[in-house]
Amino acid sequence: MKDAASAPSRLRRHFHQARWEEPIIFQLSQPGQRGILPPQPEPELLAEVGPPQTLIPQKLRRQHAPALPELAQPQVLRHYLRLSQETLGADLIVDAGQGTCTMKYSPRINERWARSPQFAALHPLQAEEDVQGILEILYRFEQILKAISGMDRFSLQPQAGSAAIYTNASMVRAYHAQRGESHRNEIITTLFSHPSDAAAAVAAGFRAIILYPDPDTGYPSVQALKAALSERTAALFITNPEDTGIFNPHIAEFTRLVHQAGGLCVYDQANANGILGITRAREMGFDLCHFNLHKTFSSPHGSGGPGAGAVGATAELAPFLPAPLVDFDGQRYFWDNDRPQSIGKVAMWYGNVGVILRAFAWAMSLGAEGMREVAEIATLNNNYLLKRVLQAPGVEAPFSPGHRRIEQVRYSWQQLAQETGVHTQDLGRRAGDFGVQYWLSHHPWYVPEPVTLEPTESYTRAELDEYADILAQVAQEAYQDPAFVRQAPHRSPIHRIDPSVLDDPALWALTWRAYLKKKDKWPGSDSSSTP
Amino acid sequence: MVSHPYIPNAEPHIKRAMLESIDAASIAELYADIPDELRLQEPLALPQPLPAESDLQQLLSRLLHKNRTTATHLSFLGGGCYDHYVPAVCDEINARGEFLTAYAGKTYTDHGKWQALFEFTSMMGELLEMDVVNIPTYDGYQAAATALRMAGRITQRPLVLAPDSIAPGMRAKFQDYCPPDVQLRWIPYDRATGCWDASALAQQLNQDVAAIFIENPSHLGVLEENVAAIIEMAHAHGALAVVYVNPITLGVLAPPASFGADIVCGDIQPLGIAMQYGGGHGGFIATHDDPRFVMEYPSRLYGIAPTSQPGEFGFGEVAFERTSFAHRENAREFTGTAANLWAITAGVYLALMGPQGMQELGETLVARAAYAMRRLNELPGVKAPHFRAAHFHEFVVNFTDTHLTVAEINRQLREQGIFGGYDLSKAFPRLGQAALYCITEQHTKADIDHLVHALGHILAPSFSSPSSEKTL
Questions:
Q1: At residue A27, what are phi and psi to the nearest 5 degrees?
Q2: Which residue segments constitute the domains of chain B, with CATH numbers given?
Q3: I need a surface site. Which of A7, A151, A492, B167 has the fewest CB within 10 A?
Q4: What is the pLDDT of residue B472?
Q5: Direct distance between the N- and C-terminal alpha carbons of chain A, in angstroms, rounded to an integer
Q6: Could you give the count of Cα atoms lying within 13 Å of B178 in the half-sphere of its Cβ?
Q7: Sign of CA dihedral A175, A176, A177, A180
Q8: E strand or H helix at A135
Q9: Contact state of B97 with A92 under an 8 Å Cβ cutoff
Q10: Cβ contacts (< 8 Å) between A46 and chain B: which residues?
Q11: Which candidate, B445, B391, B399, B402, places its Cα nearest to that of B420?
């Protein structure tokens, strides 16, 4: 135990990311190479139907083959393996640096079954009798989410957190319309909630009102909420803890006031990892909530999806949930499509079921005690990392001094930036030289020079020390040799890009074919690559 | 308590040492800001956990083996999710821990992820012959709904015309998602051909119409042969053409852009992604390289950029200021986690297939589907295809004259280990007893013959086989 607790930090001073100098796949193309052969139609079948081309109306036939690259199979595999090696997935690193993202361990047993033919080869239109196993999993997982949140029903259909937020906004819209209160067209949210809480509300036709944090506590005051409430209030969309990691202790007062004004309360539980088994949406007074299963429930982030946003509702709001919902009659599991007040469908089928399957497996491994342990250790790790990070020069954790944080902290390097001229982006690129991610923060940067760190329950003390030591090292370098940090990265797969081509319509190239058309206009084009 | 393998610092000595190092007496102290009345006093009411991995393995195995799958049964289900062959290399790449567990890493830490996604958009661009392709959204329905809203914003017009042949789920999605930017008007499809009804379209087109929505092939499987003429009609009224296409068709079918499509959208699941009970989707949106269009995408858009090293490339976000990440409530719709692992996979698929593979696959699909239609049409009381139109790999089979319901036919097929076509009788009652059949390259001629044989027995128990019927 002593060894584990006092293990020396291992700053990876000589780390270098893979640098394969891997060309764009089109540059690897060799005419005539084949990566895989599709099956050919049988000769006797062709004899009956004739040449395939003649089965397609002349007007619709493709005149020339698509200019896809041509590679043999080993070359395709090698190309993509090299690209994978040039990617710092959470499996490889101490991924405490992607705050709000909950980069926890994704158990491999869950992958095994998500990829098994018993699941992967299921078609969504199969007869219910043939999919009882997966329906049972969906049903049982809904019961688990109900226990964790205190809500009465869940839809597992939304395919990510933002989709769940939109779904909630759509349900709020339907609820007020049904009550003849469609004049309620404002959704109140907070600056430190996810940008989609505002954006998806607007996409659903609402006006967004943003509550700013109290400069001392870091969360909006009751007075600020009161000032925003009116007969136009449709709902409050709020995270708690917000991205600062500070729990708003007045949350029950918030929901009471919103209800009093005739609005609904919607809980974005993107930051739920530190409060599983500690406190619930129900007791805080929420009508709707959602969990990000690719965050809190361990399903892998997939380079940016697939995810899942499970939406929970009280009995009053449940009729509006997306249809269908899975149900059980005591003998068999089935899809309940008879939901006349439902907002309808948000996904093509039932959502990202593979993500839900993994989340179910994770929850079954942990149970009630284990889940509470997840929250407690995630919170302990965060407060430990907080103490360690604050030992670096030039950094602070704004708001609520002396208070503990839940599962993450938004830090500020304002002092360091003022003293060195090195900005948080520079620190982030340099941190990457030590083999970690460093996630700045959502805009706008109300906290100046921000970084948001969320260590989750998955890392050892030594790993947390490693992350803190990297930040201390990088901060010290900023004071000693600011130019060196500003020029970072120094050990990445590529050199610094010229981003000027990304915002100029004459120069931007979103595909290789666009690049080929525009490359001669690029800055220093004579030195740019020619395949 | 034994510490759980997923939670290293749950080990009691470590936990105590860490608490000491932050001057906390207990874990409870860390939650001091949570009022007592909000604290749970009891453990969550969850099932007994299975922390031993082998126990969990048994549970998952037992539950999932209750399913009957297309891996062991002959399935003719399609309708938006397709049982195409998934190349082993696709599975290998999307199982790589680096891609599987990466997330929001930027230009330098996740260079490989960015390149793989840029290559996906680039290969889709070749397939579609369009220069701008998004990093995919959730699925094809979301892509289509966003494409229609984009059309509304681009034209500043309030109305979209869509055929009533689209899938009920897609219609429900449009009704939920589109109205803040555009209203929908449903136009009856041509009942004989299943295609757009040009005369109905002509009556409805006016200067309020932001876009017309065309599926090619349609949900009911027909190819829109007059797509160029229909798009021309829309353009003549200043409306845009939003075309929903299945990318698997584009080895043999001309891309929608060649007919004048302005926004092309669809779903990438057919491109090397397992069905996963409908959990393997991603929605693409493509346009020409016109800033008026580009600036209306809500999606992430990745661009290629030069580096300080001649000949080297890196990647970054294009026109990031459009997105909700930059401007929250003042953005185009919203952006977030979507389907990147599937986009990478679809890129691998297109790289494996190449131009020749896509063409050959398309030829196999149309040939086998044509054969299936021919064989099925020989059965007594069966009409295949229902519509007088060209088809790709899906088609409506009408069983009305057999005097059996599709539900009954499919029930009997299931007894023989066959998943029959999707029953359309509820969603499209006008078709009578009809089912949507899908043929993929995984169906051999023998599989199709087996289906026809089985149906023959169901429809006419004395009926021996279609080939013997033919020789009569």
A1: -75, -10
A2: 12-46 (no CATH), 74-81+356-463 (3.90.1150.10), 88-349 (3.40.640.10)
A3: A7
A4: 36
A5: 57
A6: 31
A7: positive
A8: helix A132-149
A9: yes
A10: 367
A11: B399
Quote the CA–CA distance of B286 and B263 in Å, as a whole number.
Answer: 6
Compare all CA atoms of chain A with the CA of B29 and give the residue at the minimum distance: A404
What is the arrangement of strands in the sheet containing A186-190, beginning at the earlier edge strand? A153-155, A309-313, A288-292, A264-268, A233-239, A186-190, A207-211
pLDDT tens digit string along B132-168?
999 999 999 999 999 999 999 999 999 999 999 999 9
Question: What is the distance in angstroms between the Cα of B218 and the nearest Cα belonging to chain A?
Answer: 14
- Interacting residues of B364 by C-beta distance below 8 A, sequence separation 6+: A38, A39, A40, A41, A52, B441
Q: Which two tokens stand for residue A367?
A: 């149970």
The verdict on a CB contact (< 8 Å) between A505 and B291 is: yes
Tell me the C-alpha distance between A191 and A172, whole Å: 20
Task: Please enumerate in sequence order all residues whose Cβ is within 8 A of that of A507, keeping only pairs 6 or more positions apart, or say none.
Answer: A500, A501, A518, A521, A522
What pLDDT sits at residue A524? 81
Take residue B173 and report the two structure tokens written for it: 């999605």
Give the CA distances from residue B280 to residues A112, A120, A160, B167, B334, in Å, rounded to whole numbers and listed in that order.
Answer: 16, 9, 13, 18, 21
> What does the pLDDT read at residue A7?
46
The predicted pLDDT at position B235 comes to 98
**Cβ-Cβ contacts under 8 Å for B274 (sequence gap 6 or more):** A115, A120, A121, B86, B91, B280
Q: Write down the mean pLDDT value for chain A.
A: 96
Q: Which residues pair with B266 in a beta bridge?
A: B284
Label the pairing between strands B159-163 and B209-216. Answer: parallel
Q: What is the pTM of this model?
A: 0.97
Q: Are B175 and B160 in contact (CB under 8 A)?
A: no
Q: Please tell me which of the candidates A148, A275, A355 has its beta carbon nearest to residue B279.
A: A355
Interchain pair B355, A350: CB under 8 A: no
d(CA A323, CA A499): 44
Q: Is B229 exposed, middle or buried (0-12, 13-18, 19+ CB in 10 A)?
A: middle
Determine the Cα–Cα distance for residues A268 and B101; give it in Å rounded to an integer: 23
**Residue numbers in A near B59 (CB within 8 A):** 364
What tokens appear for B401 in the block? 């004259």
Cis peptide before A241 (omega within 30 of 0): yes
Q: Which pLDDT tens digit goes with each residue over A31-42?
A: 999 999 999 999
Residue in the block written with tokens 């049409």 = B377
